[in-house]
């Protein structure tokens, strides 16, 4: 078995791919062993996706060769690579919501009963596969009814159904809750035990150290190193990824809380369907303090933030900013009261991607002097301000007149932060500020949030990443089913908060 | 932090494969800014030519005669003398262009706010009716105030008419495509009643004819090229050109335009920015309708002077405005050029074409065939761009690539 584990199933040699103006892959070597989990680590734009798209037959390489089980191959399309036993699960799932799980999985290669789809046969086959690898999902359920985590399992099953021996997972945990991610790792281990090889694309260091056997780090299109997990540390990997030492721990002095700048009292908020999501939440955030709200996704965090920022009407309760109570305030009134907001989805809410950087920076103040007077705008002033902030916040990849959609995720987030902070808000709400960002950008944002705290702002941090909450917050609130399930200052263990996030306290009390 | 080099942005190809809808639109705008509308028009003309060919005529000759018939050959020997055929033809083409610019803007403005205004036709009719009413019933006023009142009231009426659709969308979420189509029908049947037997706008001289009176002389726009009696080109042409500038300035230089574009691109981000999305839906729709109402006003005071039941089904400028805006990609310059193209087609296909060159039944309908094709293709311009990019991608990449492929 030990000898078999070292057997190479795939070799990529000297792969090169150019796009106009950029070398996306430059002389890249990668080899994959049978039954290994091989992490492909790199920042956004390092060339991970390009390399995998070449392997999967979506791009044509400019140079280099690919050997599959020692034989040279040349995939002209994804169909070729699928037939050769390569499966890929993309970040964005490609399932048909109105069809059942089983129908989605067999699509394109259906078991037939005469001319009809053999529905029973399909379900049976899917059930067998899902039991074999511990990928639990109901084959008869409609895809529109299942969770995101289950959708991902369907995608994996689909690849296995087509006979994949090598499975490419592109940032698989990006859409998962911590619990779902844990389950996914279990699935990966059982696939590995069965002799499947897994290429795991990611930029999250802790995941790599948890699941990978070997790690290849890419930076700017080149392979920096391929190392076994043993001996690798988060620091060493981050250095290889970014090209310099990265501070993974947040350095901050103890908080010096001042006056209460945000006060929420007995707040009740419902979602679009009228289901109560926030049920009687009260808390204060002081000047110069970071309050972190921990919780599993969907426990009312989104509605809570939307109510505080005026984007959603509260059913009951009061919100006060700097001692002033705001009643049924609109988003505009909350902005004017001094609430800054880094939204959880920068592409859907935080930015107008088609707008230029200058226009995005003006998103709150476009109608006020000096941007505008009597409804007439002065684009030059927008650009001047943008240039200043681009420099101050080190936003890269575009100028004042570049469309925001053309920036990398990290720079888009810096753009949002620049705009919110430049307004000098009293209260800064940061919702999932580092979601989908790479280590360099995370380091920057964490430092920035601490800086803003030290400037005397009241910071409310909402994150699904418990590690982020623990390392940044001066005080932690745990939200569970719309209620505050716990409050902690000082040292607290991940386990304790994890338990509260799942409503554990209630159970032990009962 | 400082020595860290820029992360290279995603290439267009990458964005197309992996990106979101927004990314693909951004790509479209960068790569397809000029290519797509030109390709769209060329393919539409090509297919229109095939229809001409199918009837046994030479499409090149047909297009040449339409070009000349529209007076576009005027540029080869420019003159202002309308006794010259080319000059007269051009003045008539520009008369159509005037209307189509404004009808195109009516569609384009709503588009920039993320709405599809199919109701330009109805808003245009409402403008016509009101201009006729003011022009006829308020006789005795001095010319300038009379014209301003007629045009102003008609523009306002067009805006209110479209504002209904905007209001319904903002309050109860009624889709503007449905409500503007319904408002078109209401406008059409209101017209049938207004001009019909005993209707309030029917002429008083001959009660058997379902047609309005002529507007008073004081309400007629000055003609600067040609004769009033011979349907010369009126000063409304300059109003339409000015409207293009106003359209551009509103969108790109005012806070109103900033809000419109923000809502059009991303309503959720607009709301987050503090913009009142509902207000903008109503307002953008009303401004759209005002452009169409203005078109009706200028047609009435510029050269039609009266309108009747039988004119209603024969008129489709509001719908051609959709093709104009789509071909012009909802920009000021594009809409101007698109209006000129369709204005030339409208006039060039309706007169002076020899049956040796094109089948007479086909001539007038060729405009509508091309209009339909344009709308179809603009809807499919993602496809056109895709084909365009595929062609580029399939091009060989030099010896290295060939080696690797071998």
Termini Cα gap of chain B: 44 Å
The overall pLDDT average of chain B reads 85
Unreliable residue stretches of chain A? 506-510
Per CATH, the class of the domain at 85-346 in chain B reads Mainly Alpha
Net shape of chain A: globular
Number of helices of chain A: 19
Could you say how many structural domains of chain A there are in total?
2
Uncertain runs of chain B: 1-27, 393-406
Structure summary, number of beta strands of chain B: 2
Task: Please characterize this protein's 3D structure.
The complex is a heterodimer of chains A (510) and B (406). Helices cover 34% and strands 27% of the residues of chain A. Chain A has 510 residues and is of the alpha/beta class. Chain A folds into two domains: 2-242, P-loop containing nucleotide triphosphate hydrolases (Rossmann fold); 260-509, Rossmann fold (3-Layer(aba) Sandwich). Chain B is mainly alpha-helical. Chain B has a domain at 85-346: ABC transporter involved in vitamin B12 uptake, BtuC. Helix content of chain B is 69%, strand content 1%. Chain B is globular.
Task: Briefly say what this structure is.
Chain A is of the alpha/beta class.
Q: Layout of helices and strands, plus pairs?
A:
The complex is a heterodimer of chains A (510) and B (406).
Chain A: H1 2-5, E1 8-19, E2 22-33, E3 37-41, H2 48-55, E4 63-68, E5 71-73, H3 78-83, E6 86-89, H4 101-106, E7 112-113, E8 116-117, H5 119-133, H6 148-161, E9 166-170, H7 178-193, E10 197-202, H8 205-211, E11 214-219, E12 222-228, H9 234-242, E13 260-270, E14 276-286, E15 289-294, H10 301-308, E16 316-321, E17 324-326, H11 331-337, E18 339-342, H12 346-350, H13 357-361, E19 372-373, E20 376-377, H14 379-392, H15 409-422, E21 427-431, H16 439-454, E22 458-463, H17 466-472, E23 475-480, E24 483-489, H18 494-501, H19 504-509
Parallel strand pairs in A: 3-10, 3-11, 6-9, 9-10, 15-22, 15-23, 18-21, 21-22
Antiparallel strand pairs in A: 1-2, 1-4, 4-5, 7-8, 11-12, 13-14, 13-16, 16-17, 19-20, 23-24
Chain B: H1 12-18, H2 21-31, H3 35-54, H4 59-69, H5 85-112, H6 120-137, H7 143-172, H8 176-195, E1 223-225, E2 233-234, H9 236-253, H10 255-265, H11 267-272, H12 277-304, H13 311-314, H14 317-327, H15 332-348, H16 360-379, H17 381-394, H18 399-405
Antiparallel strand pairs in B: 1-2
Helix pairs in contact in B: 3-4, 3-16, 4-15, 5-9, 5-12, 5-14, 5-15, 6-7, 6-8, 6-12, 6-14, 7-8, 7-12, 9-10, 9-15, 10-12, 14-15, 14-16
């Amino acid at each position: 078995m030990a000898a078999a584990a070292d057997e190479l199933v795939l070799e990529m040699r000297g792969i090169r791919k150019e796009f106009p103006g950029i070398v996306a892959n430059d002389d890249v070597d990668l080899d994959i062993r049978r039954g290994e989990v091989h992490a492909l680590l790199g920042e956004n734009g390092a060339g991970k996706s390009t390399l995998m798209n070449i392997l999967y037959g979506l791009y044509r390489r400019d140079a280099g060769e690919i050997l599959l089980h020692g034989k040279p191959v040349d995939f002209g399309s994804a169909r070729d690579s699928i037939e050769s036993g390569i499966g890929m699960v993309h970040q964005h799932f490609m399932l048909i919501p109105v069809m059942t799980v089983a129908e989605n999985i067999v699509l394109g290669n259906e078991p037939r009963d005469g001319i009809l789809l053999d529905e029973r046969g399909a379900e049976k086959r899917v059930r067998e596969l899902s039991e074999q690898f511990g990928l639990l999902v109901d084959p008869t359920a409609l895809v529109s009814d299942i969770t995101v985590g289950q959708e991902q399992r369907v995608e994996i099953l689909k690849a296995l159904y087509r006979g994949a021996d090598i499975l490419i997972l592109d940032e698989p945990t990006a859409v998962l809750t911590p619990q779902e991610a844990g389950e996914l790792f279990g699935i990966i281990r059982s696939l590995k035990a069965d002799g499947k090889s897994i290429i795991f694309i990611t930029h999250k260091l802790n995941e790599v150290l948890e699941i990978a056997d070997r790690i290849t780090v890419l930076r700017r299109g080149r392979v920096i190193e391929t190392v076994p997990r043993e001996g690798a540390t988060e620091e060493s990997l981050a250095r290889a990824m970014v090209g310099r030492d990265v501070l993974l721990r947040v350095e901050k002095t103890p908080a010096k809380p001042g006056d209460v700048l945000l006060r929420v009292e007995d707040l009740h908020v419902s979602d679009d369907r009228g289901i109560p999501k926030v049920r009687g939440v009260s808390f204060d955030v002081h000047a110069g303090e970071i309050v972190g709200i921990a919780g599993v996704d969907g426990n009312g965090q989104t509605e809570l933030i939307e109510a505080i920022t005026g984007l959603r009407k509260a059913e009951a309760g009061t919100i006060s900013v700097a001692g002033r109570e705001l009643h049924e305030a609109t988003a505009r009134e909350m902005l004017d009261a001094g609430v800054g907001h880094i939204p959880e989805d920068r592409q859907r809410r935080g930015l107008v991607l088609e707008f230029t950087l200058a226009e995005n920076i003006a998103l709150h103040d476009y109608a006020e002097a000096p941007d505008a007077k009597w409804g007439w705008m002065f684009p030059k002033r927008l650009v001047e301000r943008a240039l200043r902030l681009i420099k101050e916040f080190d936003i890269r990849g575009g100028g004042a007149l570049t469309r925001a959609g053309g920036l990398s995720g990290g720079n888009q987030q810096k753009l949002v932060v620049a705009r919110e902070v430049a307004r000098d808000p009293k209260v800064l709400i940061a919702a999932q500020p580092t979601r989908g960002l790479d280590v360099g950008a995370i380091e920057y944002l964490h430092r920035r949030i601490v800086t803003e705290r030290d400037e005397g702002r009241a910071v409310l941090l909402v994150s699904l990443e418990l590690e982020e909450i623990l390392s940044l917050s001066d005080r932690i609130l745990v939200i569970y089913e719309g209620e505050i399930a716990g409050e902690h200052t000082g040292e607290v263990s991940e386990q304790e908060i994890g338990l509260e996030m799942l409503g554990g306290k209630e159970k032990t009390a009962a | 932090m400082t020595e860290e080099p820029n992360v290279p942005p995603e290439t267009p190809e990458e964005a197309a494969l992996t990106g979101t809808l927004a990314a693909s639109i951004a790509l479209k705008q960068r790569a397809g800014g000029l290519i797509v509308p030109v390709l769209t028009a060329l393919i539409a003309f090509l297919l229109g030519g095939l229809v001409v060919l199918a009837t046994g005529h030479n499409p090149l000759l047909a297009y040449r005669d339409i070009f000349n018939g529209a007076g576009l050959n005027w540029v080869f020997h420019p003159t202002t003398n309308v006794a010259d055929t080319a000059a007269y033809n051009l003045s008539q083409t520009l008369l159509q262009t005037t209307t189509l610019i404004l009808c195109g803007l009516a569609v384009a403005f709503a588009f920039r706010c993320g709405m599809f205004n199919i109701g330009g036709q109805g808003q245009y009719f409402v403008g016509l009716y009101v201009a006729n009413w003011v022009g006829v019933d308020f006789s005795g006023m001095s010319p300038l105030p009379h014209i301003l009142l007629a045009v102003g009231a008609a523009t306002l009426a067009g805006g209110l008419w479209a504002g209904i659709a905007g209001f319904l969308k903002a309050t109860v979420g009624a889709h503007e495509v449905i409500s503007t189509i319904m408002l078109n029908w209401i406008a059409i049947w209101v017209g049938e009643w207004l001009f019909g037997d005993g209707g309030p706008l029917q002429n008083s001289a001959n009660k058997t004819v379902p047609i309005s009176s002529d507007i008073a002389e004081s309400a007629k726009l000055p003609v600067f090229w040609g004769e009033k009696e011979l349907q010369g080109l009126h000063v409304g042409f300059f109003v339409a050109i000015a409207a293009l500038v106003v359209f551009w300035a509103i969108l790109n230089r005012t806070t109103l335009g900033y809000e419109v574009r923000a809502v059009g691109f991303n309503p959720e981000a607009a709301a987050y920015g503090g913009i009142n999305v509902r207000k903008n839906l109503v307002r953008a729709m009303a401004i759209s309708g005002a452009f169409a109402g203005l078109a009706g006003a200028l047609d009435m005071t510029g050269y039609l002077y009266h309108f009747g039941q039988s004119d209603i089904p024969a008129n489709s400028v509001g719908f051609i405005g959709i093709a104009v805006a789509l071909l012009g990609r909802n920009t000021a310059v594009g809409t101007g050029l698109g209006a000129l193209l369709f204005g030339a087609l409208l006039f060039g296909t309706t007169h002076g074409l020899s049956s040796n060159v094109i089948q007479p039944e086909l001539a007038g309908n060729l405009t509508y065939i091309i209009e339909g094709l344009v709308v179809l293709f603009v809807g499919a311009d993602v496809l056109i761009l895709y084909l365009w990019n595929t062609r580029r991608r399939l091009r060989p990449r030099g010896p290295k690539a060939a080696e690797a492929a071998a």
